[in-house]
Amino acid sequence: MPASYDLIVIGGGLVGGAIAWGAAAQGASVALLDEGDVAFRAARGNFGLVWVQSKGAGMPPYAHWTRRSAELWPVLGNRLANATGVDVALEQPGGFAFCLSDQEFEDRASIVQRMHNESGDIGTRMLGRAEVRAMVSGLGDEVVGASFCPIDGHASPLYLLRALHAGLAALHADYLPGRRVDAIDAAPSNFTVRCGLERFTSGKVVIAAGLGSRDLAPMVGLNMPVSPLQGQVVVTERLRPFLHYATHCLRQTAEGTVMLGDSQEDVGFDITTRVAVLQRIAARNARIFPALKEASIIRMWAALRVMSPDGFPIYEQSERFPGAFAATCHSGVTLAGAHALDLAPAILAGTLPDRLDAFTSRRFPAPPPA
Ligand SMILES: Cc1cc2nc3c(=O)[nH]c(=O)nc-3n(C[C@H](O)[C@H](O)[C@H](O)COP(=O)(O)OP(=O)(O)OC[C@H]3O[C@@H](n4cnc5c(N)ncnc54)[C@H](O)[C@@H]3O)c2cc1C
After folding, report:
1. Cα of 209 to ligand 1 centre, how many Å?
2. Residue 349 sits in which domain range?
């Protein structure tokens, strides 16, 4: 007999993990099926920002959803810590996007103004040279200013993933790694998910398999046209605490290491690092904080973002097979609060809220018939 659940979530990264934990916390019986270490996993390669200030230019519902998630994050962090003992190192002291030329400053100011006009004021301000230096020490002479948003923050993405998985265990949900879903037999509110010879059944299923979602979605009448966008990250040795704030390209972790980014390369399913990209990342960050030139680099990696064609999330319930849901985004750390505490209860209730209407895949061309 196949194991039966209230909800099956496919994909054990940050998106699937947050939704599965949120549903289990509501008392549902949940299975989280995950392909495992062989899969491409953005959740294990990311930067850890809980970033709000520039999210949603041109799409106010995304800006509002992101802000909502940042508000919910402390609740999520505390609940996970209480249930699992894992501190996800959430800090929300505000975040800077530094500008290294007058042109960058003007461009940034116009994004901030646009966000303000479209989606309301969250306190993001452009700060000149002197104002930024009054808040952050050690800045290089080339920093002409920055945008600063008081609700930006950061967390440890690896501890978050660990806490979500530990939280599921504490709630007696089944986190099942090493299960690559290869087929789903779908009928409205009745799904049999197949992993090799194993079968799992449920009235509700969520496709949250990152880059694997593109192939799984059509099995339940959904369209998730996601593709990879590579990002590379450089990590320094542990340094004395010098930066409490989040920034768009650099953050000091709770352990003292400094993570440097941020690259965006369209290279398909390729996770090799390239020296030219790493040099660019290191050089720009050293212009911002010249003391970094003396720091040893201890790690670097490339990972693949999960991108929809317009970069915004996809949330949708299948019209053909009600009970099947799509969930994907490129900011799974930032949106973890909303995924766990807003989206998961809505999925369990069987209806997505109106404020998620803007995120259906109907904004993209329909896929060719199978
Ligand atoms: C370099 C980089 C920096 C980033 N920085 C940030 C940041 O600062 N802040 C932020 O909010 N976000 C950031 N992100 C994005 C964030 O990491 C992702 O949004 C998030 O990890 C996506 O989670 P996911 O669960 O959708 O996908 P993934 O983490 O990729 O997980 C997908 C999971 O699905 C599983 N899977 C795939 N196919 C199948 C199948 N057929 N059956 C079963 N399981 C399957 C895989 O095993 C995998 O575990 C960054 C990403 C990158 C690459």
Report:
1. 8
2. 3-73+157-225+311-363
CB contact at 8 A, 122 and 176 = no
Tokens standing for 296? Answer: 């040893």
Q: Which residue CA neighbors atom 2 of ligand 1 most closely?
A: 46
- Please check whether residue 10 is in contact with residue 326, taking contact to mean a CB–CB distance below 8 angstroms: no
Residue that finishes a domain, picked among 282, 307, 332? 307
pLDDT at residue 367 tops 80: no
User: What is this structure's pTM?
Assistant: 0.97
Which residues approach ligand 1 with their CB closer than 6 A?
Answer: 10-16, 33-36, 39-43, 45-49, 51, 179-181, 208-210, 212, 216, 231, 233, 303-306, 328-334
What's the structural domain count of the chain? 3
Same domain, 28 and 143: no
| Closest C-alpha to ligand 1, atom 22 | 332
Q: Concatenate the DSSP letters of all residues of 140-183 into one string.
A: -TT--EEEEETT-EE--HHHHHHHHHHHHHHTT-EEEET----E
Nearest to 116 by CA among 72, 70, 52: 52
State yes or no: pLDDT of 179 exceeds 80.
yes
Nearest ligand 1 atom, CA 38: 47
Tell me: do 281 and 240 sit in the same domain.
yes
Tell me the per-residue pLDDT of 307-347, one tens digit each, with 9 for 90 and over.
Answer: 999 999 999 999 999 999 999 999 999 999 999 999 999 99
Q: Are strands 30-34 and 174-177 parallel, antiparallel or unpaired?
A: parallel
| H or E element, residue 145 | strand 145-149
Q: How far is the CA of 51 from the centre of ligand 1 (A)?
A: 16
Q: What is the pLDDT of residue 370?
A: 63
DSSP-assigned beta bridge partners for residue 234: 260, 300
Say how many residues make up the chain: 370
Q: Which residues contact 341 (CB under 8 A, 6 or more apart)?
A: 22, 72, 75, 76
